[in-house]
């Protein structure tokens, strides 16, 4: 087992001791008594790496690579943390894959179960539905594929491949459909931000793995926005959509009964005065629906917003350095007191402390070296 340098561990431990981190507060996990976790890192590289994370002290210990899969850029798990699923976003004009791994919550190791063709090129995101279905977004080819989950966690044969046609006004980035994420509501409605079509495509998921078109079939975004990722408030009354091509966050009112969405606001993710190239990536909302966090690639920062649920409006309150180049994924730790951010180009992830009163971020000084980190997945350890 490899461990972080003592100096780095000391920084995190000192920070946690100074703040007396309790296992409550916004963003807190339902596992309030849990303190020991395995942190899995999705990345561009040869496999999935893992760390031990102690939520009571902030201590991280590197385990190393625990699962082999080419470019496992995004990860998901079932609700009982028995199986980890990962896309294989391989390079080139060839189909990618989606893999299933059995999780050993004692050691953090992953045992490969099986892989399936993703049904398209550059699978970039996936999500699980009711521990019965895995749904995958294929970015380059634009299709959304689905797979039933077998009793042992393996992926069954592809049940659906939902394709789309069309293009947006940007000839370089919107020449065709580009499914970018899979977000599933509590009622089983599947939302897929499509950067190429300026739409959020909508499907219905069934327990057998099959997807069908929803009515309405999509939410239309303004031309040239390039919707990439989205996040719902806990009550699903609002959705925040990160638009990659315009560096703006859109706020939508969401009708849970119908799946329809109505835009309320567009707000920049960039600091005032910045005029360089930028491509936002991830967006998260805290568990109390008070603060929203988003990454900026180009400005290389994390934007923080306060949210007024009454008005349905965001207000930018902070833009902080990502402490690296091309920040992609964001994730709260299970207590909601820390935010993890992965910098793809500088091969490091950074840990921030979240002010529980204001939502603002403070860098802890810890930057952990790991190849091209993209996504974070916390699993309770045993």
Structure in words:
The chain has one helix at about 5-20, and strands spanning about 35-45, 45-55, 60-70, 75, 85-90, 95-105, 110-120, 125-130, 135-140, 145-150, 160, 185, 190-195, 200-205, 210-220, 225-230, 240-245, 250-255, 260-270, 280-285, 290-295, 300-310, 315-320, 325-330, 340-345, 350-355, 360-370, 375-380. It is mainly β. The longest helix has 14 residues, at about 5-20. The two termini are about 15 Å apart. About 50% of the residues are buried.
Brief sketch in words of this structure:
The chain is mainly β. It is 4% helix and 51% strand. It has a 4-stranded antiparallel sheet with strand order 3-2-1-28, with no helix packed on it. A 4-stranded antiparallel sheet has the order 4-5-6-7, with no helix packed on it. The protein has a 4-stranded antiparallel sheet with strand order 8-9-10-11, with no helix packed on it.
N-to-C span: 17 Å
Helix and strand content put the structural class at mainly beta
> Could you tell me the mean pLDDT?
92
Q: Give helix % range.
A: under 10%
